[in-house]
Write a structure and sequence with these properties.
With 228 residues, the protein is of the alpha/beta class. It has 7 helices and 9 strands; from the N terminus they run βαββαβαβαβαβααββ. The chain starts with 12 loop residues before the first strand and ends in a 13-residue tail after the last strand.
């Protein structure tokens, strides 16, 4: 698939879901490359060092390593058009999420056109604990020109409220019957489609129209390296 075949609406909320190793980060990187090509601003809030850093090979794509206990001038970082944030080896998930929460607050009140990628979003948007700023972002982000891409490998832990606000789901093959059943509540034909999915293929499901298609693994071609 030429990257241009992936249509990127002006404003969107997407969920990318799949088990570890299914290809979420690879596909997310593919989307970011297309955003960069179209000069549409993005910020990635990553949870692992090597997930998406390869994107920084592109001109104008900057990276910021989040160190434990360090204070950041977020406004300076946020003046960049294309940004990848990732934790150092010593940064705990709790501290990282606290920083990302703060960042989301700033982004929300900043109101510029931007795509926000939240990796392992179940940390900030779980079934049991939904961060208020994430809820605001999915409910009100549209009017502010803020689009969001959530990724998760823990589909049953991910906030159903947030998922129900998503216009599309990109989902890889699942193996555990309980997961497949669970997903079928949001994507009625999933059990059948799941059988057709091969390694790294992704189902694109439109929740507004019920339309879907399978994007084959070989159609997803990165131009930057993927270290994940
Ligand atoms: N479409 C694809 N074509 C070829 N290799 C892929 C594709 N998607 C993922 N991979 C490979 O599969 C591995 C896992 O992908 P990754 O995106 O890191 O998984 P996840 O983020 O879901 O854990 C990586 O080594 C990646 O290079
Ligand atoms: Mg990943």
């Amino acid at each position: 698939m030429p990257a241009g075949d992936l249509d990127l609406p002006g404003n969107f909320r997407w969920l990318i879901a799949g088990v570890t190793g299914s290809g979420k980060s690879y596909f997310t990187g593919f989307i970011c490359e297309e955003l960069r090509r179209q000069r549409r601003r993005f910020i990635v809030l990553d949870t692992k060092k090597d997930n998406l850093r390869g994107l920084a090979d592109l001109r104008d794509v900057h990276e910021v390593k989040i160190l434990p206990g360090k204070a950041y001038n977020w406004y300076r970082a946020l003046s960049k058009d294309f940004l990848i944030m990732y934790p150092s080896d010593r940064t705990t998930t709790d501290e990282l999420m606290e920083k990302y929460e703060m960042l989301l607050e700033i982004l929300y009140s900043n109101d510029r056109n931007l795509v926000i990628v939240i990796e392992e979003a179940h940390h900030l948007a779980s079934q049991w604990k939904l961060d208020p700023i994430v809820e605001l972002l999915v409910r009100e982000g549209r009017g502010k020109g803020l689009s969001v891409i959530f990724t998760t490998q823990r589909i049953q832990d991910f906030s159903k409220l947030v998922w129900s606000q998503c216009d599309r789901t990109y989902i890889f093959k699942w193996f555990i019957p309980q997961d497949i059943n669970y997903i079928s509540r949001m994507i009625p034909e999933f059990e059948n489609i799941n059988r057709q999915l091969q390694k790294h293929d992704v189902l694109e499901y439109n929740h507004q129209t019920g339309e879907w298609r399978i994007i084959k693994a070989h159609e997803i071609k990165r131009i930057t390296p993927h270290y994940g």
